[in-house]
Amino acid sequence: xxxxxxxxxxxxxxxxxxxxxxxxxxxxxxxxxxxxxxxxxxxxxxxxxxxxxxxxxxxxxxxxxxxxxxxxxxxxxxxxxxxxxxxxxxxxxxxxxxxxxxxxxxxxxxxxxxxxxxxxxxxxxxxxxxxxxxxxxxxxxxxxxxxxxxxxxxxxxxxxxxxxxxxxxxxxxxxxxxxxxxxxxxxxxxxxxxxxxxxxxxxxxxxxxxxxxxxxxxxxxxxxxxxxxxxxxxxxxxxxxxxxxxxxxxxxxxxxxxxxxxxxxxxxxxxxxxxxxxxxxxxxxxxxxxxxxxxxxxxxxxxxxxxxxxxxxxxxxxxxxxxxxxxxxxxxxxxxxxxxxxxxxxxxxxxxxxxxxxxxxxxxxxxxxxxxxxxxxxxxxxxxxxxxxxx
Amino acid sequence: xxxxxxxxxxxxxxxxxxxxxxxxxxxxxxxxxxxxxxxxxxxxxxxxxxxxxxxxxxxxxxxxxxxxxxxxxxxxxxxxxxxxxxxxxxxxxxxxxxxxxxxxxxxxxxxxxxxxxxxxxxxxxxxxxxxxxxxxxxxxxxxxxxxxxxxxxxxxxxxxxxxxxxxxxxxxxxxxxxxxxxxxxxxxxxxxxxxxxxxxxxxxxxxxxxxxxxxxxxxxxxxxxxxxx
Lengths: 391, 229
Hints:
Chain A folds into two domains: about 1-40 and about 255-390, no CATH class; about 60-240, no CATH class. The longest helix of chain A has about 45 residues, at about 245-290.
C-alpha cells in the first residue's frame, strides 16, 4: 500500500514508465507466441521424421514438396536392402494447386497412403476427434480425413461431402489438434492420391504411366537399432535416381530457420529490456532525488541502507509488475484476436503458452527491480545530514 | 556515569580545494542521564554539527586528533554505519525543525515507521505508535496525513515518533524554529514532561532564549568551540 502511495505521487510519470514496459512485454508476448507456434510445428516435424527415411526422386529439391514422382516399384528395391523393415509409398501434394511461392505458415497438404501399410511402425500420434481414421478397406474409395484446422476451415463434419482438386470425396473423420503439420493436412487412400498425382503430370508422362505405379515418396522404416544416416546413404547408392531425407537433415535445415526467428525474439526482448530498463532507472532516479530529504530522515531515525534499497527496488519491481501484467493482457488480446480472425481460414499463427505468460511477467518484474537497483544504491549512500538539509 | 562523553571532537568539511570549514575545533562535552540540555550559540557556531555527531548521524573527523565519543561507556568512533544506524533506531529519537514527516504516510504510520526500524513487527509497531500519539495528545488525529495537520500538530507527531521506542536520548534540532509562540510553548512543555516523567535525556539545539530557559543546563558555543557549560 505504501508503495502504491509513493507511485501515486507522480501519476503521469509512473503511468508513462509502466506504458514503456507494457509495450516491450507486449511485443515479447506476441513474438514468443509466434515462436511457440512455429516451434510446435518444427517439433512435430522433428518427431515425425526422427525414426524414418523419406526417399524421393533425385530430381526433387531436398525439402520442396515432391513434384517429380517416384515409381512404386522402387519400394521393393529398397525393402531388399539390409536394415530396411517396412516401406510405404506415399502421395504428397498441395491441397490448393494454385498456391505457389513461400508463405509464412506451412501450406495445406494432401497426404495419401495405404492404411496399415506401415505395419504399425508409424508412432506419430494421430487420433480422430470426430468419425474415424482411414482403414485398409477405404482403398479404392473417395473418402477423406481432415486435420483439425482444415475441419474448421472448411466447416465439414463426417458424412458430409467435399471437393478435393475437383474430385468429390466423403468426409469420414476429423482429427484432434496436434499443433503440428497434420492439422493442415487431409488424408485420402493411396489409390485416390495416385489418381490426383497423375493429373498433375505433363501429358507425355500421363500417357506413359498408370496411376497405380506412382508415388511422391517412399517412407522407409528401418529395423530397430539401425544407423539411420548410414542406411539413407546406402539407399541412395543402391537404388538409382533416389535421394533420401532423414530426421537429422530435417532438424538441420529447419533448425537454422528457427534459430533466426529465435534471434529476432531475443532482439525484441533485448530492446524491451534496454528501453524499459532505462525508463525505470530514469523514473526511480527522479523519484529518489525528489525524496532526498525523506530518505535522509528515514536514515536518521534508523532505516538501514538495506531497507532503503529494498524500498526503492520494490517500488521499481511494482512498476515492472504493472507493465508486465498489462503487456501480457494486451499481448493475449492481440494473439487471441488474430487467431480468431485466422481461424476461418485455418491460419493459426500464435500459441500463447502458460510458460510464455509467466516468463513475460517475471521478466518484467526482475527487469524493473534490476533497473531500480542503481537509483536504490544512490539513495542508500546519501549522507543523512546532507539529505535532511536538502531542499 | 555520563550518558554521553565527548572529548576533543573536531569536524572539518572540505567544500573545495582551498575552502575548508572547521565546524568543530576540539569540543569537550558530557551529558548525564536524565538531563535536559540546550546547545545555544550564533549561526555557524557548530551546534548542529555537534548534535549530529552526538546523534551518530556523522562521525567526528580524525585528522591528526584522537577524539573520544562514548555513549553509555561504549566507544562510538569505530562503529560501522550499520551499527550506528541500529543505535539511532533503538536508543535515540530525533526531532527536526521542519518536522520532516513522510508526506504519504498518516500520523500513526509515521510514528510506526520508527518502531519498525527498531525491529518491531508491523502490528506491534502500530500499537506502540498509537500509544505514543496518545502521549502527545493526538490519538484522535492518528489517521490524518501531515498535510492535514497544523505545524504544532506535525511537530507533536514528530515527537511521538522520536519517543515511540522509549529511547535513552532525544535529540531535537531547533524543535520550535518553525512554530509560533503558543505552539512552541506546547512543544517545550511536552519535552519537559517526558524529561521529567519518563526520565528521557534531551539534547536540543536552539536560538530561542525562552527554550534555553526551559532546560536544566545550557551549553554555549562559538566558532566551533564550547565557551560555557
